[in-house]
Design goal:
By secondary structure, this protein is mostly beta strands. It is built from one helix and seven strands; from the N terminus they run αβββββββ. A seven-stranded antiparallel beta sheet has the order 2-1-5-6-7-4-3.
Length: 126
């Protein structure tokens, strides 16, 4: 087992420790992966295809004061932390996250993680 995979397992375990139930910090939410889509010849448009990944544990929180930059809108923006082993696809801009109370957040930026063990995602409430 390599060092990166060991870190990825530890991050995944940490998310479970935070709690994935309704009272936990890493609640299970829906991640909506939006792909380029399929060409609709009748409408002559390309329609995005949405793939739902249900039950993905993730932490949804406000940005800290140190992390706020020119692109962050404190009223509507949040940061999402997802263990990379819990998400079967790599996140991309315009993907969406559906919260338990049906609030939709759109991915604006993928922030860095040097070990590729966790996705740190800047999202905005629609």
């Amino acid at each position: 087992m390599g060092f990166k995979s060991l870190i990825a397992k530890q991050v995944q375990g940490a998310m479970r420790t935070l709690g994935t139930d309704a009272d936990g910090l890493a609640r299970k939410r829906v991640f909506l992966s939006m792909s380029e889509g399929v060409y609709n010849s009748a409408a002559r448009t390309v329609e995005a295809v949405e793939t739902r990944h249900v039950g993905v544990p993730m932490v949804l929180s406000r940005f800290s004061l140190n992390d706020i930059d020119d692109e962050v809108r404190p009223q509507t923006d949040r940061v999402v932390l997802i263990a990379s082993l819990d998400l079967p696809v790599a996140p991309d801009e315009n993907d969406k996250i559906e919260d338990t109370d049906l609030v939709i957040y759109t991915v604006k930026r993928i922030l860095s993680d040097p070990a590729d063990a966790m996705y740190k995602i800047h999202v905005r409430r629609e």
